[in-house]
Amino acid sequence: MATKPPAAFTLRRLGSADAAQYRALRLAGLRAFPHAFRPTVEEALEQPLSWAEKRLATKGEYWFGAFDARFDDTELVGALCLRTQEGKKIRHSASLNALVVDPGRLREGIGAALVAYLIAFARELGFIRQLTLTVIDGNAAAIGLYERFGFRQFGLEPDAFLHDGAYYAKQHRQLTLVTPTS
Ligand SMILES: CC(C)(COP(=O)(O)OP(=O)(O)OC[C@H]1O[C@@H](n2cnc3c(N)ncnc32)[C@H](O)[C@@H]1OP(=O)(O)O)[C@@H](O)C(=O)NCCC(=O)NCCS
Prior knowledge:
- By secondary structure, the protein is α+β, with helices and mostly antiparallel strands.
- 29% of the residues lie in helices and 34% in strands.
- Helix 4 (110-125) links the parallel strand 4 (93-101) and strand 5.
- The protein is globular.
- The termini are far apart.
- The site of coenzyme A has 21 residues, from strand 4, helix 4 and helix 5.
- Coenzyme A (COA) binds at residues 29, 33, 36, 99-101, 106-112, 135, 139-142, 144-145, 148.
């Protein structure tokens, strides 16, 4: 049986100090996949470095990044966010957001590693029972990835997204974490 090559990236939490790299990665993602994200490139360009710093330090949000091991784990090649909610009635439900992989590093397992990391982290928090996400209908790469992890579609919002003059539906998906501790 063929042995797998060692991972070409490492994973860790992101913070304000990673803002410049995160902003650059986000812009690269927006340019390459304009159909996948809410803001336009123009809107994102108006968001300064301080916006990214604030975003990565938002209370209740946990940001994770994949770093290229070939460059001493200094180059950010993927990111995503776990957004939690405050309040006894809703804190068991958190969401996966803002997943992006460097357009030059697709199909290397970075997206899957980030999603697995987020799920493990959410389990470790101990109070998360379910994860939700939304994805534009037709985003085959992201849908394939989410399906692989068991995120099941439970809703579809028609015409939620307007891109290049065409409307697209938005899928709502959910993954139940099977071993909640509370
Ligand atoms: C979706 C995305 C994060 C996937 O990242 P990635 O690092 O290339 O994905 P991986 O290499 O980890 O692939 C994991 C699985 O995802 C699925 N997948 C990834 N790319 C795919 C594609 N182009 N078509 C179909 N399935 C795909 C496959 O199931 C794949 O498993 P496999 O390689 O064993 O077949 C990446 O394409 C991306 O950044 N897209 C633009 C941004 C985006 O759509 N974000 C999500 C918004 S909801």
